[in-house]
Amino acid sequence: MASPPSASTPRAPGQIGLVSCVAFGVGTTVGGGVFTLSGTAVNLAGPAAALSYILAGIVMFLCALSFIVVSTRAKDGESGYAPVGTLLGPFWRFIVMWAFYLNGATIIAYLVVSFGDYFSEYFLPAASILLVALVVTALVTALNLGPTSAVARAETWIVGIKLALLVLFAVWGLTELRPDDLDRPLPSGTGGVFSATALLFTAYTGFNVITNMAGSVKNPRKTVPRAIMLTILVSGLVYLGTVLAMTASGITVFKATGVSQAAEIVMGSWGGLLVAFAACLSTLSGANANVLGASEIMLRMVARGDVPAALGRHTRGGHPYVSVLLLGVITVLLVLLRDTTFVVSIANVAAIIAMVVVSIAAAVLGYRKWPGDGARLPLGPVIPILAALAAAGQLPSLNPAALLAGFLLTALGAALYLSRQNPRGGAGAQGHANAQIDTLNTPLMRAARNRTIDIPGTWPDERHLPPEA
Q1: With contact defined as beta carbons under 8 Å apart, do 292 and 148 qualify?
Q2: Does residue 336 belong to any structural domain of this protein?
Q3: Per-residue pLDDT tens over the stretch 224-256
Q4: Helical segments of 72-188, H only
Q5: Are 114 and 354 spatial neighbours (Cβ–Cβ below 8 Å)?
Q6: Are 241 and 262 in contact (CB under 8 A)?
Q7: Is residue 294 within 8 Å of residue 105, measured between CB atoms?
Q8: Are 136 and 448 in contact (CB under 8 A)?
Q9: What is the three-class DSSP state of 185?
Q10: What is the distance between the alpha carbons of residues 164 and 26, in angstroms, rounded to a whole number?
Q11: What is the DSSP letter of 16?
Q12: Overall number of domains in the chain
């Protein structure tokens, strides 16, 4: 079993430095969400949507500090959330894992609908958004029942294209921004600002994917925390630039394709098409990545005996077809709801639950005077407690129906965990899952070794990725 490289370990050919790590994290965090959520945020908060992005970033920054002090206490070969089980108990470690699974599963539906919005609006107007979303769901499901290396190899180019086009739009729009654009009444008063903040929480959740690559990172105990902080900062700046450029367009009510809608005004029709192209690339690759990541979480829950072993059944090639097909069914059901904001709100509830649990674990560490060699925070448990309160404080601003759905789905996971019959078996699907994890041969691991790929909201369970050969 490979151990994470220490500060004294010579840099191996496949190891990743800080700059590459930040590039990976930013590419993950600035996903499909910016192309649809930015318009929704402006509709709720008007020009104050920029403030909503800042507030959401501050809340996530606090949560990231908790994440760092917990994850840096993982033992060699463990993942970032493993210490949660040691500090709070295995049940709460499972809740964090299950919450990230829910977050990934719901985000898939949001992404395929966003793809349908942009594709139908700009490239095939005669196509039904619902039909396009269902076709993309089938495509992504099929991709994850077979080899993923080709998609993984293309991901670096996709990330570069979408970031370059977003930065171009942001810089162009900022040159057009006038004081009068910012001096407009808030559509829903101050309540709209907080509602937008709660909705935007999920826009920053991709930072935790950096722990996926910890075993391939040079000096991970220093590099990973720095990369997480820089990822949140850079992503926040991209979001801020995008929403200010949208404000400069003068549009007050945006459609689902809001970024392209604003780009048409600010840059011309060619700008709208370029942004729409980036949106389609980003949402398609993001949906595929979330299926891969959520399936990885399910595989690891099966390996630990946290959920029924049947959920880990696999093809001869090692692909967890039951998990992938389950995600496909969930996506279809959520797509048929035709309510993107509701779906994103459920994803936010799941992410908030995970962040609150991690922050409580960090508070326990602070109360115990930060034992071990990991990162420390000033003021003992104060900052993690503030992080837990700030994250939980977003819940009242979310859709009440989405709140209920999010907690019910979390309770469903808890029931599965508490009813498990064979917590640590070795036969059948569970044994195969353990073998895949022990040999670093899961679909996610194989894809990551081919090329870095954005997997929002995924933490490996017991093993870090090894340096590439």
Answers
A1: yes
A2: yes
A3: 788 888 888 888 888 888 989 998 888 888 888
A4: 82-88, 90-122, 129-143, 149-176, 179-182
A5: no
A6: no
A7: yes
A8: no
A9: coil
A10: 12
A11: B
A12: 1
Q: How many other CB atoms sit within 10 Å of the CB of residue 414? A: 14
Closest by CA to 76, choosing from 294, 305, 363, 374, is 374
Higher pLDDT, 231 or 289: 231
Cβ atoms of 275 and 259 within 8 Å: the answer is yes
**In whole angstroms, what separates CA 408 from the centre of its chain?**
21
Which secondary-structure segment (H or E) carries 346?
helix 340-367
CATH number at residue 29: 1.20.1740.10
Q: What is the mean pLDDT of residues 335-343?
A: 84
Q: Which DSSP state fits 314?
A: -
First-residue to last-residue Cα distance in the chain: 15
Bridge partners, residue 16, by sequence: 217
pLDDT digits (tens, 9 = 90+) for 19-45: 766 766 676 677 666 888 888 888 888
Distance CA 100, CA 300 (A): 12
C-alpha to C-alpha distances, 39 to 34, 78, 166, nearest whole angstrom: 8, 39, 14
For residue 313, how many other CB atoms are within 10 A of its CB?
Answer: 16
* pLDDT value, residue 201: 76
Which position has the higher pLDDT, 149 or 415? Answer: 415
Q: Which residues contact 175 (CB under 8 A, 6 or more apart)?
A: none
C-alpha to C-alpha distance for 423 and 75, rounded to whole angstroms: 22
Is residue 268 situated within a structural domain?
A: yes
* Residue 187 lies inside a defined structural domain of this protein: yes
- 433 lies in which domain range? 18-371+389-419+426-450
**Contact present, 184 and 249 (Cβ < 8 Å):** no
Tally of residues, the chain: 469
Q: How many CB atoms lie within 10 A of CB 161?
A: 15
Note whether residue 115 is domain-resident: yes
List all residues 6 or more positions away from 220 whose beta carbon is below 8 Å from its beta carbon: 4, 5, 214, 464
- DSSP states of 124-152 as a string? -TTS-HHHHHHHHHHHHHHHTTS--HHHH
DSSP state of 376: -
Residue 464, pLDDT above cutoff 50: no
Query: Which residue shows structure tokens 């279809």?
Result: 332
